[in-house]
Design goal:
This protein is 37% helix and 21% strand. The chain is of the alpha/beta class.
Length: 275
């Protein structure tokens, strides 16, 4: 690659690149193309001009403490989702041994937790999409040297509104955007990332989350911790919904780095469900 090649590329295509890739810069491109051949860089430039996300083009995204393989079968991990791992750390109890990652996608939450919390004995990466689970399995193998030797990590295909296995900790990044608000997301996200991982139909939204919370309340172990990411405007309503469950001892919302509400968490007591 010639010195200044990406600067020239940006100068010649600034309008198109800034439309599709907010925050992208020649420096970021240079950092993400180390080791690529000239032919691969030419192909990458063409993809970027078409709007293909950089993470898909280079098939990689750094998340928390690891580099993950990603492609268009899964959502691209976002920096704000790393705060889920930090929230787990704040609420973590020493006797937590099992973790369920609902809507795992590339596996970034569940696998990052397995790296962070070395006392885990079992992590289940669950998704309704078999394509997404194949990506999660790639990352499980890629990062296997960093997991506790005694921790089993399995993938499971299932809908999060059909069945959840028992777990001490449940993390989730479910589809949380109402279909009617699709206009509000960036056109690159709408065009390239899997819609089944983004949207819930408006008329099904409340029922979908009621069913999901039913399953969480029935499946989480006593003293267990639940953390999910959600739509800022809709999280207060979801907090009220989950607070109705008798097993919920504590629950609240947390903000992301921009000051927006982004996460819902709850701690569940060890008793039968009545909600």
């Amino acid at each position: 690659m010639r010195e200044g090649e990406f600067d020239e590329f940006f100068s010649a295509n600034r309008k198109q690149l800034t439309h599709w890739h907010p925050g992208l810069s020649p420096r970021i491109l240079k950092e993400n193309t180390v080791g690529l051949s000239e032919e691969e860089i030419r192909a990458l430039k063409n993809q970027l001009l078409q709007g293909v996300p950089l993470a898909y083009a280079v098939e990689a995204r750094f998340f928390y403490e690891a580099l993950f393989f990603v492609d268009d079968r899964v959502l691209i991990p976002r920096m704000e989702s790393e705060l889920i791992i930090e929230l787990l750390e704040k609420k973590w109890k020493g006797d937590y041994r099992t973790l369920l990652d609902v809507g795992t996608g590339c596996g970034c939450l569940g696998l990052s937790a397995a790296i962070k919390f070395q006392d885990l004995s079992c992590v289940v990466l669950m998704d309704s999409s078999p394509k997404a689970l194949r990506v999660a399995a790639i990352n499980r193998e890629k990062l296997s040297y960093r997991f506790p030797p005694s921790c089993s990590i399995e993938t499971r295909q299932a809908s999060c509104v059909e069945n959840l296995p028992r777990a001490d900790v449940i993390v989730a990044n479910p589809p949380y955007i109402k279909r009617s608000r699709a206009f509000a997301i960036h056109p690159q996200v709408y065009r390239y990332e899997p819609h089944e991982a983004l949207f819930v139909e408006d008329e099904h939204y409340e029922h979908w989350y009621r069913r999901f919370f039913d399953l969480v309340a029935h499946s989480i172990c006593g003293g267990g911790l639940f953390v999910m990411e959600g739509e800022p405007d809709l999280l207060p309503g979801l907090l009220s919904m989950i607070a109705e469950y008798d097993r919920v001892e504590k629950c609240d919302l947390e903000k992301d780095l921009t000051g927006k509400l982004r996460f819902l968490w709850g701690i569940f007591e060890d008793r039968e469900v009545h909600g």
